[in-house]
Design goal:
Elements lengths: L14 H13 L2 H7 L4 H15 L4 E4 L2 E4 L1 H28 L5 E7 L6 H13 L4 E7 L6 H4 L5 E5 L7 E15 L19 E4 L6 H7 L11 E5 L3 H9 L5 E4 L2 H4 L5 E5 L5 E8 L7 H13 L9 E2 L4
Parallel strand pairs: 3-4, 3-5, 7-8
Antiparallel strand pairs: 1-2, 5-11, 6-9, 6-10, 6-11, 6-12
Helix pairs in contact: 1-2, 1-3, 1-4, 2-3, 5-10
Keywords: DNA-binding, Transcription, Transcription regulation
InterPro entries: LysR_HTH_N, LysR_subst-bd, WH-like_DNA-bd_sf, WH_DNA-bd_sf
Organism: Streptomyces pseudovenezuelae
Length: 319
Amino acid sequence: MGAGGGSGGRREPSLHQLRLFLVLAQELHFGRAAARVYVTQPAFSQQIRSLEQRLGVVLVERGGRSVRLTPAGRSVAEEARAVVDAMARLRQAAGRHVGAARGLLRIGSLGAEAAMPYAQAILAHLRGRHPDLEIEVRNLTFLDMFSTLLSGEVDAAFLRGPLPGGIQSLHLASEARVVCLSDDDPLADRDVLTLDQLAERTVVDMPPEVPRSWWNHLTVNPRPDGTRVRFGPVVRDTEAMVLAVTQGGAITFLPAAARRLYPRAGITYVDCPELGLSTAELAWLPDHRDEPAVSALREAAHQTVRQPGSTPADSAPDA
Protein backbone atom coordinates (compact mmCIF):
# COMPACT_ATOMS: atom_id res chain seq x y z
CA MET A 1 0.00 0.00 0.00
CA GLY A 2 1.30 3.49 -0.86
CA ALA A 3 1.94 6.26 1.60
CA GLY A 4 -1.55 7.65 0.98
CA GLY A 5 -3.24 4.47 2.24
CA GLY A 6 -6.98 4.08 2.27
CA SER A 7 -9.42 2.11 0.11
CA GLY A 8 -8.45 1.97 -3.54
CA GLY A 9 -5.41 4.14 -2.92
CA ARG A 10 -7.48 7.13 -1.77
CA ARG A 11 -5.83 9.50 0.67
CA GLU A 12 -7.11 9.76 4.21
CA PRO A 13 -9.18 12.86 5.01
CA SER A 14 -7.34 15.55 6.90
CA LEU A 15 -8.43 16.84 10.30
CA HIS A 16 -8.74 20.30 8.74
CA GLN A 17 -11.22 18.98 6.16
CA LEU A 18 -13.27 17.30 8.86
CA ARG A 19 -13.44 20.55 10.82
CA LEU A 20 -14.61 22.42 7.71
CA PHE A 21 -17.26 19.79 7.01
CA LEU A 22 -18.59 20.09 10.57
CA VAL A 23 -18.98 23.84 10.07
CA LEU A 24 -20.86 23.21 6.81
CA ALA A 25 -23.05 20.63 8.56
CA GLN A 26 -24.03 23.31 11.07
CA GLU A 27 -24.54 26.20 8.64
CA LEU A 28 -25.93 24.25 5.64
CA HIS A 29 -24.75 27.16 3.50
CA PHE A 30 -21.40 27.39 1.71
CA GLY A 31 -21.17 31.17 1.95
CA ARG A 32 -21.87 31.37 5.67
CA ALA A 33 -19.65 28.38 6.42
CA ALA A 34 -16.73 29.86 4.45
CA ALA A 35 -17.14 33.23 6.16
CA ARG A 36 -17.23 31.59 9.57
CA VAL A 37 -13.78 30.04 9.10
CA TYR A 38 -12.45 33.03 7.14
CA VAL A 39 -11.67 31.31 3.86
CA THR A 40 -12.98 32.13 0.40
CA GLN A 41 -16.04 30.19 -0.75
CA PRO A 42 -14.21 28.58 -3.73
CA ALA A 43 -11.43 27.38 -1.43
CA PHE A 44 -13.97 26.07 1.07
CA SER A 45 -15.93 24.23 -1.63
CA GLN A 46 -12.70 22.73 -2.98
CA GLN A 47 -11.87 21.30 0.46
CA ILE A 48 -15.33 19.73 0.75
CA ARG A 49 -15.04 18.18 -2.72
CA SER A 50 -11.60 16.86 -1.84
CA LEU A 51 -13.05 15.31 1.33
CA GLU A 52 -15.79 13.63 -0.72
CA GLN A 53 -13.18 12.29 -3.14
CA ARG A 54 -11.05 10.93 -0.32
CA LEU A 55 -14.03 9.22 1.30
CA GLY A 56 -15.57 8.09 -1.98
CA VAL A 57 -19.06 9.34 -1.12
CA VAL A 58 -21.20 12.42 -1.76
CA LEU A 59 -21.68 14.27 1.53
CA VAL A 60 -23.97 17.15 0.51
CA GLU A 61 -26.73 17.80 -1.98
CA ARG A 62 -25.87 21.10 -3.61
CA GLY A 63 -28.54 23.57 -4.60
CA GLY A 64 -26.96 26.98 -5.02
CA ARG A 65 -25.14 28.01 -1.87
CA SER A 66 -27.52 26.20 0.47
CA VAL A 67 -27.00 22.48 0.92
CA ARG A 68 -28.52 19.41 2.53
CA LEU A 69 -26.55 16.55 4.00
CA THR A 70 -26.91 13.21 2.26
CA PRO A 71 -27.48 10.12 4.43
CA ALA A 72 -23.75 9.46 4.07
CA GLY A 73 -23.07 13.07 5.05
CA ARG A 74 -25.11 12.74 8.25
CA SER A 75 -23.24 9.59 9.22
CA VAL A 76 -19.87 11.12 8.41
CA ALA A 77 -20.72 14.26 10.41
CA GLU A 78 -21.28 12.15 13.54
CA GLU A 79 -18.00 10.32 13.08
CA ALA A 80 -16.13 13.50 12.15
CA ARG A 81 -17.18 15.11 15.43
CA ALA A 82 -15.92 12.03 17.28
CA VAL A 83 -12.57 12.22 15.43
CA VAL A 84 -12.11 15.94 16.13
CA ASP A 85 -12.99 15.48 19.80
CA ALA A 86 -10.69 12.47 20.07
CA MET A 87 -7.81 14.44 18.57
CA ALA A 88 -8.33 17.21 21.11
CA ARG A 89 -8.23 14.63 23.94
CA LEU A 90 -5.13 13.05 22.41
CA ARG A 91 -3.35 16.42 22.36
CA GLN A 92 -4.31 17.08 25.96
CA ALA A 93 -3.17 13.62 27.08
CA ALA A 94 0.17 14.00 25.35
CA GLY A 95 0.54 17.50 26.72
CA ARG A 96 0.07 16.33 30.30
CA HIS A 97 3.05 14.02 29.91
CA VAL A 98 5.20 16.53 28.06
CA GLY A 99 4.53 19.28 30.57
CA ALA A 100 4.46 23.01 29.99
CA ALA A 101 8.22 23.34 30.31
CA ARG A 102 9.12 20.91 27.52
CA GLY A 103 8.30 20.12 23.93
CA LEU A 104 7.95 22.30 20.82
CA LEU A 105 5.82 25.42 20.54
CA ARG A 106 5.25 26.62 16.97
CA ILE A 107 4.30 30.30 16.77
CA GLY A 108 3.31 32.01 13.55
CA SER A 109 4.13 35.66 12.90
CA LEU A 110 2.50 37.80 10.23
CA GLY A 111 5.47 39.66 8.79
CA ALA A 112 7.36 41.50 11.52
CA GLU A 113 4.76 40.99 14.25
CA ALA A 114 7.13 38.82 16.31
CA ALA A 115 9.62 41.72 16.33
CA MET A 116 7.18 44.10 18.00
CA PRO A 117 8.04 45.06 21.61
CA TYR A 118 5.06 43.30 23.15
CA ALA A 119 5.80 40.09 21.23
CA GLN A 120 9.46 40.22 22.22
CA ALA A 121 8.49 40.75 25.86
CA ILE A 122 6.13 37.76 25.74
CA LEU A 123 8.75 35.49 24.18
CA ALA A 124 11.43 36.61 26.63
CA HIS A 125 9.10 35.94 29.58
CA LEU A 126 8.20 32.54 28.16
CA ARG A 127 11.83 31.53 27.64
CA GLY A 128 12.73 32.69 31.13
CA ARG A 129 9.96 30.69 32.77
CA HIS A 130 10.28 27.60 30.56
CA PRO A 131 13.90 27.20 29.42
CA ASP A 132 13.29 23.63 28.20
CA LEU A 133 10.45 24.67 25.90
CA GLU A 134 11.64 24.86 22.30
CA ILE A 135 10.09 27.86 20.57
CA GLU A 136 9.92 27.96 16.79
CA VAL A 137 8.73 31.20 15.15
CA ARG A 138 7.48 30.82 11.58
CA ASN A 139 6.99 33.74 9.20
CA LEU A 140 3.47 33.92 7.79
CA THR A 141 2.31 35.66 4.63
CA PHE A 142 -1.10 37.13 3.90
CA LEU A 143 -1.89 33.87 2.09
CA ASP A 144 -1.39 31.54 5.06
CA MET A 145 -1.78 33.75 8.14
CA PHE A 146 -5.12 32.18 9.10
CA SER A 147 -4.96 28.79 7.36
CA THR A 148 -1.80 27.65 9.16
CA LEU A 149 -3.46 28.32 12.52
CA LEU A 150 -6.77 26.72 11.56
CA SER A 151 -5.03 23.63 10.16
CA GLY A 152 -2.82 23.20 13.24
CA GLU A 153 0.46 23.86 11.43
CA VAL A 154 1.21 26.42 14.13
CA ASP A 155 0.00 26.33 17.74
CA ALA A 156 -0.53 30.09 18.08
CA ALA A 157 0.18 33.20 16.05
CA PHE A 158 0.90 36.91 16.31
CA LEU A 159 -1.65 38.41 13.91
CA ARG A 160 -3.50 41.61 13.05
CA GLY A 161 -7.26 41.82 13.44
CA PRO A 162 -9.99 41.38 12.58
CA LEU A 163 -9.71 37.67 13.26
CA PRO A 164 -11.96 34.94 11.83
CA GLY A 165 -14.59 33.06 13.76
CA GLY A 166 -13.44 29.94 15.53
CA ILE A 167 -10.26 31.58 16.80
CA GLN A 168 -9.65 32.84 20.34
CA SER A 169 -7.25 35.67 21.02
CA LEU A 170 -5.64 37.99 23.53
CA HIS A 171 -5.54 41.64 22.53
CA LEU A 172 -1.94 42.82 22.72
CA ALA A 173 -1.93 46.41 21.48
CA SER A 174 -3.68 49.02 19.36
CA GLU A 175 -2.02 51.69 17.26
CA ALA A 176 -2.92 54.19 14.57
CA ARG A 177 -2.85 53.21 10.91
CA VAL A 178 -1.05 55.27 8.29
CA VAL A 179 -0.99 55.74 4.53
CA CYS A 180 2.08 54.54 2.64
CA LEU A 181 2.71 56.58 -0.53
CA SER A 182 5.56 57.01 -2.97
CA ASP A 183 7.69 60.10 -2.40
CA ASP A 184 6.63 61.63 -5.70
CA ASP A 185 2.93 61.48 -4.87
CA PRO A 186 1.54 65.05 -4.58
CA LEU A 187 0.01 64.09 -1.21
CA ALA A 188 3.28 62.85 0.27
CA ASP A 189 4.16 66.23 1.77
CA ARG A 190 0.92 66.45 3.82
CA ASP A 191 0.97 65.97 7.60
CA VAL A 192 -2.51 64.43 7.68
CA LEU A 193 -4.72 62.93 4.97
CA THR A 194 -8.43 62.13 4.68
CA LEU A 195 -10.11 59.29 2.85
CA ASP A 196 -11.68 61.81 0.46
CA GLN A 197 -8.22 62.96 -0.57
CA LEU A 198 -7.29 59.34 -1.31
CA ALA A 199 -10.43 58.58 -3.32
CA GLU A 200 -8.64 58.56 -6.67
CA ARG A 201 -5.67 56.51 -5.52
CA THR A 202 -5.18 52.85 -6.45
CA VAL A 203 -4.67 50.58 -3.43
CA VAL A 204 -2.45 47.51 -3.29
CA ASP A 205 -4.54 44.31 -3.37
CA MET A 206 -4.44 40.82 -1.83
CA PRO A 207 -4.47 37.43 -3.64
CA PRO A 208 -7.89 35.74 -3.95
CA GLU A 209 -6.95 33.25 -1.23
CA VAL A 210 -6.97 36.06 1.37
CA PRO A 211 -10.43 36.56 2.92
CA ARG A 212 -11.99 39.52 1.15
CA SER A 213 -13.78 40.71 4.27
CA TRP A 214 -10.42 41.10 6.07
CA TRP A 215 -8.87 43.25 3.37
CA ASN A 216 -12.06 45.26 2.78
CA HIS A 217 -12.09 46.10 6.49
CA LEU A 218 -8.48 47.29 6.45
CA THR A 219 -8.87 49.30 3.24
CA VAL A 220 -12.22 50.81 4.30
CA ASN A 221 -13.95 49.37 1.23
CA PRO A 222 -16.47 50.68 0.49
CA ARG A 223 -15.71 54.15 1.75
CA PRO A 224 -18.20 55.97 4.02
CA ASP A 225 -19.81 57.63 0.98
CA GLY A 226 -20.37 54.24 -0.66
CA THR A 227 -17.67 54.44 -3.32
CA ARG A 228 -15.59 51.33 -3.92
CA VAL A 229 -11.83 51.22 -3.60
CA ARG A 230 -9.88 50.83 -6.83
CA PHE A 231 -7.39 47.99 -6.33
CA GLY A 232 -4.11 47.50 -8.16
CA PRO A 233 -1.02 45.29 -7.83
CA VAL A 234 -1.45 42.04 -5.90
CA VAL A 235 1.05 41.18 -3.12
CA ARG A 236 1.45 38.30 -0.70
CA ASP A 237 3.51 39.87 2.12
CA THR A 238 4.33 43.25 3.65
CA GLU A 239 7.75 43.51 2.02
CA ALA A 240 6.20 43.08 -1.43
CA MET A 241 3.49 45.55 -0.46
CA VAL A 242 6.00 48.28 0.37
CA LEU A 243 7.98 47.50 -2.80
CA ALA A 244 4.81 47.92 -4.88
CA VAL A 245 4.36 51.40 -3.43
CA THR A 246 7.99 52.39 -4.19
CA GLN A 247 7.39 51.46 -7.82
CA GLY A 248 4.59 54.00 -7.99
CA GLY A 249 0.98 53.77 -9.05
CA ALA A 250 -0.44 52.44 -5.78
CA ILE A 251 -0.74 53.21 -2.08
CA THR A 252 -1.39 51.01 0.92
CA PHE A 253 -2.36 51.22 4.58
CA LEU A 254 -0.20 49.86 7.40
CA PRO A 255 0.11 50.04 11.19
CA ALA A 256 2.10 53.08 12.34
CA ALA A 257 4.93 50.75 13.41
CA ALA A 258 5.72 50.36 9.70
CA ARG A 259 7.57 53.66 9.93
CA ARG A 260 10.14 51.87 12.07
CA LEU A 261 9.92 48.36 10.65
CA TYR A 262 9.73 49.19 6.94
CA PRO A 263 11.64 52.41 6.29
CA ARG A 264 12.42 52.41 2.57
CA ALA A 265 13.85 54.91 0.13
CA GLY A 266 11.15 56.30 -2.12
CA ILE A 267 8.17 56.03 0.25
CA THR A 268 6.50 58.24 2.84
CA TYR A 269 4.10 57.46 5.68
CA VAL A 270 1.34 59.95 6.39
CA ASP A 271 -1.23 59.94 9.20
CA CYS A 272 -4.89 59.32 8.33
CA PRO A 273 -7.13 59.24 11.44
CA GLU A 274 -10.12 58.02 9.43
CA LEU A 275 -8.39 54.67 8.93
CA GLY A 276 -8.96 53.83 12.58
CA LEU A 277 -6.77 51.60 14.72
CA SER A 278 -4.78 48.49 13.93
CA THR A 279 -5.12 45.76 16.55
CA ALA A 280 -2.39 43.24 17.37
CA GLU A 281 -3.60 39.86 18.62
CA LEU A 282 -2.11 36.65 19.99
CA ALA A 283 -4.34 33.96 18.49
CA TRP A 284 -4.93 30.24 19.07
CA LEU A 285 -7.61 27.60 18.48
CA PRO A 286 -10.03 26.84 21.34
CA ASP A 287 -9.10 23.14 21.15
CA HIS A 288 -5.45 24.03 21.84
CA ARG A 289 -5.79 26.66 24.55
CA ASP A 290 -5.18 24.26 27.45
CA GLU A 291 -2.28 22.38 25.91
CA PRO A 292 0.71 22.98 28.21
CA ALA A 293 2.84 24.92 25.72
CA VAL A 294 -0.04 27.11 24.52
CA SER A 295 -1.22 27.64 28.08
CA ALA A 296 2.30 28.74 29.04
CA LEU A 297 2.33 31.18 26.12
CA ARG A 298 -1.04 32.61 27.09
CA GLU A 299 0.06 33.02 30.69
CA ALA A 300 3.26 34.77 29.56
CA ALA A 301 1.17 37.14 27.45
CA HIS A 302 -1.17 37.94 30.36
CA GLN A 303 1.82 38.60 32.61
CA THR A 304 3.67 40.91 30.22
CA VAL A 305 1.01 42.79 28.26
CA ARG A 306 -0.69 45.64 30.08
CA GLN A 307 -2.89 48.17 28.30
CA PRO A 308 -3.49 51.60 29.87
CA GLY A 309 -6.80 51.60 31.65
CA SER A 310 -7.66 47.99 30.88
CA THR A 311 -6.65 44.43 31.54
CA PRO A 312 -6.15 42.10 28.56
CA ALA A 313 -8.63 39.23 28.45
CA ASP A 314 -9.20 36.22 26.25
CA SER A 315 -11.83 36.92 23.64
CA ALA A 316 -14.38 34.28 22.79
CA PRO A 317 -14.69 32.97 19.22
CA ASP A 318 -16.94 34.95 16.92
CA ALA A 319 -20.41 33.52 16.53
